[in-house]
Design brief:
559 residues; Rossmann fold; alpha/beta; 21 helices
Length: 559
């Protein structure tokens, strides 16, 4: 059989992906995926990045898709190479990030016969992929299906809730073309397919608006696929005299304005137990908030809770009394038109308390984890993006970062909340153009140490700030750290697990510009000005001091 049908199919598929708005692909070298690589490499309308490590490539694609809102193509060879995509695909599914995954495969006659690099790739990613399609070995008439297949893949990846789709392409030898492949010129930039966004129906809007008019309302601005949702939620709070607890990933949190309805330190205020009027209803937009004290407080209130989501529930405590399946930004705007302030006002009391809590941050112990977090956030410019590690760093940003005079976009892999792939995600975000600072912990850095090789060869303006507390500092806040429940030996050797490694030393081994900041003042100086290229800054923080630093701040708020 001639190899041309599969090359014609792969070329047609790539052409159609570009025609449907795809602009970027992250590929990994291989043999079985040669026809796909040749098609991608020949098309001038798609930007390619090459990743020797499929896991790094997948998280890179995730970060790029998060930053651009466009699906990124992933392409790899057959076998375990495809399984390396699984963690990033899982995060993409949970965080509603569009990806189009192209995996090469062995033909049917090589399946289940011990052929090398051959595994069962049918529905390889299970429920983590929104949609799976196996093309079969492309035959002479397969190109006719390429345009439909590409449009269906892109449309499915971006329609609510967005997520990854998987196309498996079995390919037979010979894997090289029998005639030269003609380069495809870059076409005029194409728009993504138009997909229908869910809009709240009139009964849901009226019933929600009635609650907002009659009760003191707190709005939860969680992470949403649309970046303007935070602004719409703040406008709704203004119209209804409500308050907003905004997650760091919501554009309501660091919107560059001193908005009177925004409660920036809700996590600390609630954890401190200060006496404040409780809301009589909650309207929760998007993903669950980072703050565990806030979520538990809301669950304990026992008040009506309306959850507005774009296709995936975020109600792990099971307290939502009603659910509105609709696009959050549009819904908030619609509700603002129907809202009116209730007779009783409580937003001002929360704002006064929030200002007092901000003043109490002077109690943060110098050199502590909160001190490092505030220094990183304060150093960010309005044109840059902060990628926060999904374990302690995002929590530190949520707890201790106050309002800013300039807007800041925060990105974190909080879909599945895994720490793996964060350096690669940062590289993907930087590929979209902005200067990026990543604030991560030492274990997060070690979990993605292989991506330091990709960072070292990049020309992107990326700064990695690694907070090294010699192990899993987040566990110091959990019951596992209680010696009366878990022995100190077990806690230290099996849970927290000190490692004694220097990330700056490891990064230097990859040829990366790496520096150790002796103090927070040194860190502040190093962060002054924009990085000209990739670099890593490591700062040590004494192990086990995180809870004490938090208690010091809570005591100051209570006093």
């Amino acid at each position: 059989m001639s190899s041309q049908p599969q090359f014609a199919f792969c070329s047609a598929l790539v052409d159609a992906l570009v025609a449907n708005g795809v602009r970027h692909a992250a590929v990994s070298p291989g043999s079985r995926n040669t026809p796909l690589l040749v098609a991608l490499g020949a098309h001038r309308g798609i930007d390619l990045t090459v990743h020797h490590d499929e896991r790094t490539g997948a998280f890179f694609a995730l970060g790029l898709a998060k930053a651009t809102g466009r699906p990124t193509v992933l392409c790899c060879t057959s076998g375990t190479a495809a399984t390396e995509y699984m963690p990033a695909i899982t995060e993409a599914r949970m965080a509603h990030v569009p990806l189009v995954v192209l995996t090469a495969d062995r033909p049917p006659e090589l399946q289940d016969r011990g052929a090398p690099q051959t595994i069962n790739q049918t529905n390889l990613y299970g429920p983590s992929a929104k949609w799976f399609y196996d093309t079969g070995v492309p035959e002479t008439d397969a190109t006719a299906d390429a345009a439909h297949l590409a449009r269906q893949a892109v449309s499915t990846s971006i329609e609510a809730p967005a997520g990854p789709v998987h196309i498996n392409v079995p390919l037979r030898e010979p894997l090289v073309p029998s005639e030269p492949i003609v380069p495809v010129p870059a076409a005029t930039a194409a728009a993504l397919p138009t997909v229908t966004r869910p809009i709240a129906d009139e009964p849901a809007l009226r019933s929600t608006a009635e609650i907002i008019r009659e009760k003191r309302v707190a709005f939860i601005a969680g992470q949403t696929p649309t970046r303007n949702a935070g602004s719409a939620i703040l406008e709704l709070a203004e119209a209804s005299d409500g308050i907003v607890f905004a997650d760091p990933q919501s554009d309501a949190r660091f919107n560059g304005a001193d908005h009177p309805r925004l409660v920036s330190l809700g996590d600390l205020l609630i954890a401190s137990g200060v006496d404040l009027p409780a809301p009589e209803a909650i309207v929760h937009f998007g993903a669950i908030h980072t703050s565990k004290p806030l979520n538990e407080w809301i669950a304990a209130l026992g008040v009506p809770l309306i959850h507005v989501h774009n296709g995936q529930w975020h109600d792990p405590l099971g307290v939502a009394t009603s659910v509105v399946f609709a696009e959050p930004a549009t819904t908030a705007t619609q509700l603002a038109k129907l809202a009116q302030p209730p007779a009783r006002s409580f937003a001002e009391q929360w704002r006064v308390a929030d200002d007092r809590a901000s003043s109490s941050l002077t109690a943060i112990p110098p050199g502590s984890e909160p001190d490092v977090a505030r220094t990183v956030v304060d150093a960010m410019t309005s044109s840059s993006v902060l990628v926060a590690g999904s374990s302690m760093p995002i929590r530190l940003v949520d707890s201790y970062a106050v309002r800013r005079n300039s807007p800041l976009q925060v990105i974190s892999n909080r879909g599945a909340n895994g720490i793996d792939g964060t350096i690669a995600t940062t590289l993907g975000v930087a590929a979209a153009g902005p200067a990026v600072t990543a604030f991560i912990g030492d274990l997060t850095a070690l979990a993605d140490v292989g991506s330091l090789a990709a960072l070292a060869t990049s020309e992107a303006s990326v700064t990695l700030v690694v907070l090294n507390n010699d192990g899993g500092g987040i566990f110091d806040f959990l019951p596992q750290s209680d010696e009366t429940r878990v022995s100190s030996d077990v806690y230290r050797s099996l849970i927290k697990v000190p490692h004694g490694l220097s990330l700056a030393a490891i990064a230097s081994g990859f040829g990366l510009d790496a520096t150790r900041a002796a103090t927070v003042a040194d860190l502040r100086e190093l962060l002054t000005g924009q990085a000209k290229g990739p670099r890593l800054i490591e700062i040590d923080v004494a192990s086990g001091t995180g809870p004490q630093a938090r208690l010091a701040v809570l005591d100051a708020i209570r006093s």
